[in-house]
Write a structure and sequence with these properties.
Elements: E1 21-27, E2 36-41, E3 47-53, E4 56-62, E5 71-77, E6 86-91, E7 97-103, E8 106-112, E9 114-115, E10 130-136, E11 145-150, E12 156-162, E13 165-172, E14 181-187, E15 196-201, E16 207-213, E17 216-223
């Protein structure tokens, strides 16, 4: 990408369509300032990485297995401000939320998300009303925050985080997004220090970006379309 515009499109190494490995996100896990790809094995719970050099596969790596498949990877971001990409998890059975604090591709520490005010574990029931949509530094304070979508009224909020502690919920003032649109990740597309939000419409192939700043949503822009519901986007 060149800002919000497509610069070029390149194929990368493929994974068989019937493979139990599913792509779960992207982040720089080896410190080379290039995005790598995180995978989850839906049979065994193994976590794997494709370490990339641009769009070329460089090497593979694995991390700790999570055999309980109720735990799902929901995003990546630097939660503890150490310059390392961390992994956001949600338990769809218990409503627990957790972060793997990473050292490269190795798990350094797994911690549950707690309330800063009282230290209690922060649970949000998996009742279909709220969906965790990803992680990114939405307030430009150097650590990742957590995006949520209300499936009833389609409003978007984020949990403002201090490390792995919840501080407050912040409403992103925008027109509600329709059910065809999905949030696919965050990335600072315009280099202003605030992560922006990538959206995709699975029905018609449209892609859009919410450019964020200190007041919230600055501008919604369209980017290159890609038709076909078999295509998914990750940043």
């Amino acid at each position: 990408m060149d800002g919000t515009n497509l610069d070029q499109s390149n194929p990368i190494q493929s994974e068989p369509a019937d493979s139990p490995w599913e792509m779960r996100g992207a982040g720089d896990f080896d410190g080379d300032e290039q995005k790598d790809i995180i995978w989850r094995n839906t049979d065994t719970g193994d976590v794997g990485f494709w370490l990339m050099e641009g769009f070329e596969f460089k090497s593979g790596a694995s991390s700790t297995q999570v055999s309980d498949l109720n735990w799902e990877i929901r995003g990546t971001g630097d939660f503890d401000s150490d310059g390392e990409e961390d992994i956001l998890w949600r338990n769809t059975n218990t409503g627990e939320n957790a972060v793997w604090l990473m050292n490269g591709t190795e798990l350094d520490q797994g911690v549950l998300i707690t309330r800063q005010s009282n230290g209690e574990n922060l649970l949000l029931p998996e009742d279909g009303l709220w969906e965790m949509q990803g992680a990114g530094d939405l307030d430009n304070d150097g650590d990742a925050d957590i995006l949520w979508r209300n499936t009833q009224n389609q409003e978007i909020y984020y949990w403002r985080m201090d490390g792995t502690e919840y501080v407050e919920s912040v409403f992103i003032d925008s027109a509600p997004i329709s059910g065809d649109w999905e949030i696919r990740g965050t990335m600072d597309f315009d280099d202003n220090g605030f992560d922006d939000i990538l959206l995709r419409n699975g029905s018609d192939g449209q892609n859009g970006i919410w450019l964020m700043n200190e007041t919230g949503l600055q501008q919604a822009v369209a980017t290159e379309s890609l038709t076909g519901d078999e295509w998914q986007s990750y940043v």
